[in-house]
Request: fold
Amino acid sequence: MKTLPFALPPDKAINYDYYPRVKCLRQLLGNDAVMVACQPGTKKPKQRWGRLTLAAMSKPSHLGKLETHNIGIVLGTTSNGLCSIDLDDDAAMDEFLRINPHLCESLRSVGESGCNVWVRIIGDYPASCKITWNDGEAAGEWRADGNQTIISGKHPSGCEYTIVVEEKPAEIEFGKINWPKDFRVGLLRASAPIVHSNTVTQLHRSHSHSVTQCTQVGASPTAFAISSF
Reply:
């Protein structure tokens, strides 16, 4: 009987050579990236993933599923600050990268159109939210805690997810990310929470539209500078 490449290792030690897709992604994303198996050709997780932890990445049964399914990355604190900026089309991608040349060499993946720019955030960052153009048309998403992004497998349109910039995610403070002036980023809403030291606190909009301020009980306020170009 032919041994499949995702067969269980012969001993208890995890040999990632048995899981080539997972091994490749770990080399790019880091060993602290938590992955979830999704139905091929969909974005639908094969399993309940809200409580997945890094421990799953040492279980042969979990790794075997990943090898035969679409692979999503659990974002935010679960994967040590790994987040993605999902840009819906080439226009949004071009505008975002134009004012963020420091992210042009960060890991970038593509589905049918647009792209996901992958970053590892240093420090605090806002919760996941939608990004629209000023006219209200969808432009993408800021994806963090509570989200997962597909990086490998078959897109619902039939094409394959591909990695177009095969580099590690840039390590960056959230405030160093520039947002096009034609974008409306949902994190400016007063209701958007901030992820801070594994806790969620409430945002309060300041008088300036370029700064969103977070006040935590018993702590000094934390401010995010939202740079628009």
In short: Confidence is low (pLDDT under 50) at residues 1-11, 196-225. The CA atoms of residues 123 and 173 lie 6 Å apart. The longest strand covers residues 115-122.
